[in-house]
TrEMBL record:
Transcription recorded as keyword: no
GO molecular-function terms, A-Z: mechanosensitive monoatomic ion channel activity
SUPFAM superfamilies the record matches: Mechanosensitive channel protein MscS (YggB), transmembrane region
Bilayer-spanning residue ranges: 32-53, 78-103, 123-144, 165-185, 191-213
Protein's recorded name: Small-conductance mechanosensitive ion channel
Keywords: Membrane, Transmembrane, Transmembrane helix
Claim: Transmembrane helix is one of the keywords in the record: yes
Lineage, uppermost ranks: Bacteria, Candidatus Uhriibacteriota
Amino acid sequence: MNDYTTVVSWGETLTTAFQNLWIKSLSYLPELFGAIVLLVIGLILASLLGKLARQVISYARIDAIFERIGLSREVDRFGVQFSFSGLVGWLVKWFFILATLIAVADTLNIPQVTAFLTDVALYIPNVVAAIIILAIGVVVGRFVSEIIERTVKASHVAKTVATTLATIAKWAIVVFAFMAALVQLGVARSLIQILFTGFVAMLALAGGLAFGLGGRDQAGRVIDSLSKELSRRE
């Protein structure tokens, strides 16, 4: 009799547990269905808005501006097909995808996922700023490189020297921009600052040595002429 009562008690316990699980599952279904609908609609809208942003930028012929200033060619050298309209479209698309995922996680009451995705979404402006810094660095580096190369060639200096100086100047600016972009992204800021300081000191030392050694004879002639002029006046 006791065994029978125990079995019945276990059966009632299991039945109650399954009933509670079924009731909770049924009560959770509306939220799950709403989250699925929200996810589908959000992904469709994100794709459409990304395409719309890309078409608007392309229609405004902003890509042609970047090709004209040489940014597209410089980026292509790294094996990356650059398109400003494509970049904007990609950023818009993923921004709305993240916004949709945040809404879905909030609907399903998953605060940890919501907080993580919110942090990712808030990090996007830093990525955009880093891309802009790199783009400006590449454009300015190319511009300065062309000016230095033309100026040095106009001074009747060897072509290899002009090319070398122009290349060094361009890559120095690109490296500066790359370091600034890493700082903007918050990647090892203290280490980047140390490397940046060391790089500046290296360039200053190299420039000083190059100027000192290269202009030593000219400086000697200038000083000698000044000495003779002073002696003549005396």
